[in-house]
Design brief:
Layout (H helix, E strand, L loop, with lengths): L3 E6 L14 H5 L2 E3 L4 E5 L6 H11 L26 E5 L6 E5 L3 H12 L19 H12 L3 E6 L7 H16 L3 E6 L3 H4 L5 E4 L6 E3 L5 H11 L1 H10 L2
Parallel strand pairs: 3-7, 3-8, 5-6, 6-7
Antiparallel strand pairs: 1-2, 1-4, 8-9
The protein binds adenosine-5'-triphosphate and magnesium ion (MG).
């Protein structure tokens, strides 16, 4: 069962026409009950997934650039403008966890190197080797294998660094962690593979309400399946319109 049970907007939030209230489901307000250890947000580019994940992470006091509670390092954006309008309901309340956004992973690796220069033991938690000296995918998996033990893991497009094979490995790690009853994942993804994760609750951010969807009905799965079955046909149409 998930520790974080409900994510909702506080009634009476500002009806402004500025970001992030311009995002339809945020402007309208929502209450989202979570029923699975793995929640996956899926939706078009710009539909508000990262904005929501950042606000949840900020509310958990995880640094919005990525990292756990004790990680602090420079990043252009230090807080989420939306966190104050958000309410999280927990049972039990947990404080451990991690927020990872693929785009700022480089900053995080630099931060780990900086700390490790004072504390060599710390690198053991990241595979015993600077994250900068591992490939993008290797360093992601190092983090998943060595650092992720328990807590709430908020991951924005974790697939960005991972080959299809490594996405399978990643899902096995998720499975092991959730089976132990010590971990909950909240993920935003465009990966058709991650969307298939068994038992995940898939929530669409398209439209003005957050809605639970069957992963098989998502555009991501439908298009990937159809495209791979007949890429030539797609390219013929795509290039014919030029
Ligand atoms: N700091 C900001 N100030 C103003 N608008 C923003 C800001 N960050 C994001 N937006 C806008 O808010 C909308 C949602 O952005 P967000 O990054 O949450 O989308 P997303 O669903 O994560 O997209 P993607 O799939 O491309 O990662 C977009 O239209 C974006 O341009
Ligand atoms: Mg995003």
């Amino acid at each position: 069962m998930p520790f974080l049970k409900t994510i909702s907007t506080i009634p009476g939030q500002p009806a402004t026409n500025t970001y992030p209230y311009t995002i339809p489901f945020i402007g309208k307000g929502f209450q989202l009950d979570l029923h699975s250890d793995v929640t996956i947000f899926v939706g078009e580019n710009g539909s508000g997934k990262s904005t929501l994940l950042e606000a949840i992470a900020s509310k958990c006091e995880f640094h919005v650039a990525g990292g756990g509670r004790n990680q602090r390092y420079e990043h252009h954006q230090s807080e989420s403008p939306f966190a104050d309008s958000l309410r999280l309901s927990w049972f039990p309340k947990i404080t451990e966890g991690f927020f990872l956004r693929a785009e700022s992973f480089y900053n995080f690796a630099t931060y780990v190197d900086h700390i490790a220069s004072d504390d060599a033991i710390m690198l053991d938690a990241y595979g015993g080797k600077s994250l900068h000296h591992q490939s993008h995918g290797e360093s992601f998996l190092s983090l998943f294998t060595n650092r992720f033990k328990k807590g709430l893991f908020i991951l924005d497009e974790p697939e960005a660094a991972l080959s299809p094979q490594r996405q399978l490995v990643f899902m096995r790690i998720m499975h092991q962690l959730t089976q132990s009853g010590r971990a909950q994942f909240i993920i935003a993804t465009h990966s058709p593979m991650l969307l298939c994760y068994p038992g995940a609750e898939v929530i669409s951010t398209d439209g003005d309400t957050l809605s639970v969807v069957d992963y098989r009905d998502t555009e991501h799965i439908r298009l990937a399946r159809d495209f791979l079955a007949k890429p030539e046909q797609y390219f013929r149409q795509l290039f014919a319109e030029e």
